[in-house]
Design goal:
- The chain has 167 residues and is of the alpha+beta class.
- It has one domain (6-165): Aminopeptidase (3-Layer(aba) Sandwich), CATH 3.40.630.30.
- Helices cover 32% and strands 29% of the residues.
- It has helices at residues 13-21, 23-30, 38-52, 104-117, 135-142; strands spanning 6-10, 63-68, 73-79, 88-95, 124-129, 146-153, 157-165.
- A 7-stranded mixed beta sheet has the order 1-2-3-4-5-7-6, sandwiched between helices.
- Helix 1 (13-21) crosses helix 2 (23-30) and helix 1 crosses helix 3.
- The longest helix is centred in the first third of the chain and has 15 residues, at 38-52.
- The two termini are 26 Å apart.
Length: 167
C-alpha cells in the first residue's frame, strides 16, 4: 500500500476555537472537506482545547489535523508535549473511522517523526499502544520503532512503550 501524502495543519488556538464552535463555516472558508466526520472533528477540537488549558501548545509541539490533497480531513495527530530534558518526545495519531486501513495513520506518524528529527535536541520519539498486536503496533514496527516493554499508565493501565532512537 502506498502511504498517502498528507498536509498537517497545526491546531493553533485560533484554529481550535473555530473548529470547536463552527467547523462547517471554518472548513468552507478554508476550502476543506469535513466528510462525514463533522461532529468528530468538532469534538477533537473541543477536547484539545480542554487539555491545553491556559498553556496552549506551540508548533511544532502541538496537535494537527491531517488533510489529504483534495482537502478532506481524515485524522488527527499530535506531539503530547514538547521534548523533555532527556530529548524524548511522544507522538499520538488517530485516523477517523471512515478512512481507516488506507495508510493514513502511517503517514501521520511518519510526518511527526520527520518533524521531531528537525529539532536537534530530540534523541528519541516515543509512542504507547495497548499491550497487544494491533494496527498501531504494525505502524510503529513499520517505522522501525522498538517495543521497550510494558509499563503501567495511571489512566490506561498496562501499555506497551515504543521508541525510535535518532541514528
Amino acid at each position: 500500500m502506498t502511504t498517502p501524502a498528507l498536509r498537517l495543519l497545526p491546531l493553533t488556538t485560533t484554529t481550535l476555537d473555530a473548529v470547536a464552535f463552527d467547523p462547517v463555516t471554518w472548513a468552507g472558508i478554508r476550502g476543506f472537506n469535513l466528510g462525514t466526520c463533522v461532529k468528530l472533528i468538532s469534538t477533537v477540537a473541543q477536547q484539545t482545547r480542554e487539555m491545553r488549558g491556559a498553556a496552549p501548545a506551540q508548533p511544532p509541539w502541538c496537535g494537527y489535523l491531517a488533510i489529504q490533497a483534495d482537502g478532506l480531513i481524515v485524522g488527527t495527530c499530535a506531539f503530547k508535549a514538547p521534548p523533555n530534558a532527556a530529548g524524548e518526545v511522544e507522538i499520538a495519531y488517530f485516523t477517523f473511522p471512515p478512512y481507516e486501513h488506507r495508510g493514513i495513520a502511517t503517514a501521520m506518524a511518519s510526518d511527526l517523526v520527520k518533524t521531531a528529527w528537525e529539532a536537534p535536541n530530540v534523541r528519541q520519539v516515543m509512542a504507547h499502544t495497548l499491550p497487544e498486536e494491533n494496527a498501531s503496533t504494525h505502524i510503529l514496527k513499520h517505522l522501525q520503532f522498538r517495543c521497550l516493554g510494558t509499563i503501567q499508565d495511571p489512566e490506561d493501565g498496562p501499555i506497551w512503550r515504543w521508541a525510535l532512537v535518532r541514528q
